[in-house]
Amino acid sequence: MDPMRRSPSPCSSRPSSPRTPPCEMLGYVGIEAVLDQLKIKAMKMGFEFNIMVVGQSGLGKSTMVYTLFKSKMWKSTVPGLGTPTPQTLKLQSVTHVIEEKGVKLKLTVTDTPGFGDQINNDKCWDPILGYINEQYERYLQEEILITRQRHIPDTRVHCCVYFVPPTGHCLRPLDIEFLQRLCRTVNVVPVIARADSLTIEERETFRRRIQHNLRTHCIDVYPQKCFDEDINDRILNSKIRDRIPFAVVGADREHLVNGRCVLGRKTKWGIIEVENMAHCEFPLLRDLLIRSHLQDLKDITHNVHYENYRVCRLNESHLLPRGPGWVNLTQAPAGPPATPRPSKVRHQVQDDSKDNEEY
Amino acid sequence: MTSEVARHLLYQSHMPTKTTCLSSQVSDDEQKQKKENIRSLTMSGHVGFESLPDQLVNRSIQQGFCFNILCVGETGIGKSTLIDTLFNTNFEDHGSSHFYPHVRLKAQTYELHESNVRLKLTIVNTVGFGDQINKEESYQPIVDYIDAQFEAYLQEELKIKRSLFNYHDSRIHVCLYFISPTGHSLKTLDLLTMKSLDSKVNIIPVIAKADAISKAELQKFKIKLMSELVSNGVQIYQFPTDDETIAKINASMNGHLPFAVVGSMDEVKVGNKMVKARQYPWGVVQVENENHCDFVKLREMLICTNMEDLREQTHTRHYELYRRCKLEEMGFTDVSPENKPLSLQETYEAKRHEFYGERQRKEEEMKQMFVQRVKEKEAILKEAERELQAKFEHLKRVHQEERMKLEEKRRLLEEEISAFSKKKATSEIYQNQSYMASGSNLKKDKDRKKEPGYRFELLCFDVRACETNGGRKDAEEGREGPCTMGRP
Q1: Are B104 and B139 spatial neighbours (Cβ–Cβ below 8 Å)?
Q2: Where are the beta strands (DSSP E) in B240-300?
Q3: Which one of B7, B10, B345 has the shortest CB-CB distance to A153?
Q4: Cβ–Cβ < 8 Å for B266, B277
Q5: Is residue A347 part of a domain?
Q6: Chief subcellular site (chain B) (predicted)?
Q7: pLDDT band at B468 (very low <50, low <70, confident <90, very high)
Q8: What value does the mean pLDDT of chain B take?
Q9: What's the whole-model pTM score?
Q10: Is residue A354 part of a domain?
Q11: Looking at the domain assignment, is residue B144 inside a domain?
Q12: Domain count, chain B
């Protein structure tokens, strides 16, 4: 496009990675105050986080959400006897703002009641993929406006927690199909739900089998190996990858144990403490999702998954008909592998040229 | 199928609303959001996301920061020295000449480390600003440079396969405009330059070499400058006053603009410390003494308090304005003529088709032209061929005629020869008869006769040979006649 290329620049064109001679400062300047400025800005703007929970009914999704965020998202977690089971998968999103120590978090939880509940569960992942793609589409449409908003509201799903029923054997075909499709579009964290029905040894065998299944079917769950930036990340993430999927238990009642009030499930043979590492791995899940990797989840969604979607969308657009069918919810295409995130430690990015070949 | 995701009003109210043209859209948004509301939940326990800002900060530390400063001012006004002093380093030593015919910009990038913060600092200096006799073109290179940086970013953003997180942001975050300490008012060049830059970059005007002005003059100078700027509608950067923690200090600093600064990297002993200062016979001007100049204020404002805000303003205000203007210039709009919302995609597609069509058409044209040319050339060549043919025919005819003439001559000659030989024969008969009568002189006469006869014949032979050779040569070009035979 000629008008764009016409603008002259007296200086040479922008340095892509300019030679930066390191300079030593002879005294304190105060550059590190920029970190505080960042913090202030972040606190003012608040954070957004969108999480999706997927699994069959009765696996404890809503309870888990409660346990994670210590707040009741939905009015009732148990569907009343009168309500009929939904015939098709309907996604429900709820948004709340929670605040802790001055930090505001706008949390959106998307539930998927009816997933995997029908007799014929063929293509039950379509509505979910459609929803995820719709959020990407929404963001993209906002981004390509001429007059953009100052802060584009981020409704993209940052993390999808997939609940695996505690059969103790291996991943079921439905699980495998779903995970295969979804891990290319969104960060997926599989968890073993209701892990209190498995003993510790059973949990380990189950976990190993699931890991084996994931490897066999090339399912890349979060934290993805290809996005490890440096050696520290790799070490940290390897530890996490070793424990995926976490065996979790959710609870929404508090009980008195040894004088302390803890969240747990009370049974005749004991009280399962949710936050006790010896009982279940909920703390690991909570730490991963909230305390340590939340920003990373958002980054990968924005830099990798959203960019992939954008590339597909912009490449395909000349094939789509214009007009009312413009916002076309495309399924996650069978192809494109995620482009590896370029490291901040400055090594070359290899862009997958497979993307172009597919289209 | 899915429920609408609700938006929270609290966020909108906390956003700094410094937008000018965006404000209308923001308020529309607000209206929409007032209808849907989000509950605030109280949690029944500790979740742990207060570490979120730390996670964000950690990520930023890993990525590193980027800050670009543009220094605009006349040669020798102290730009490089001030930057050196601000960042407490010696970046480069040599000054520049006054004799450049045009204004140029020179950019240099440095990497600074402080505790765990990595800062990629780019300093862009104007070289030769204000030196020319005719200063009409002085500010254009600066405007072009700023636009070029925005352009590069826009190009990257519009790519299909892009890598924005890896992109070295070269957009200018702040422009330090150096005003000469005349004590009177702004120069025309300064006013013009600032006016053309104020919508593209955050401008912080500073009074350079402030040790040349006394305190009283300085106050008046500052007031004069600010009033001139205001009356000419120049929008300089205002330090943000919407966050309580820094609102007060920013507001007070806003009143001290433009900062009167002195730069120096030389150290002078004052009391029992070595401080950065300029030594004069009448005293020492200490750079970091707030009573002497506003350097500390500038450093505080620029680096410690508002660096992030400067970057944000550049990105959300100046860059967005540039982007909008650029895209509108290219013909993209958000609303089509029929007032239906038009997406960038559709317009882009339309343009793409248009361009393709144009290209096809041009290709066709070129093809046609090519075919035409080929035809013309062919015609010319054919014409030439015909001409050549005609010439050949003509020549052939001429030769034919020549040959016939020569044949004719030859025939005549042969007839002559035969007639002559007949005569000779009859004369011989007569001679024999006369010999019979005489008798004795026969042999001698015979001998005598033989010789002249032989010679006579030879003569005839020679003449004939020459004539026929010559004739043949004329009639057939290039063929070797028998007279050449045997010759080397």
Answers
A1: no
A2: 259-260, 267-270, 273-280, 283-286
A3: B7
A4: yes
A5: no
A6: other
A7: low
A8: 79
A9: 0.70
A10: no
A11: yes
A12: 2
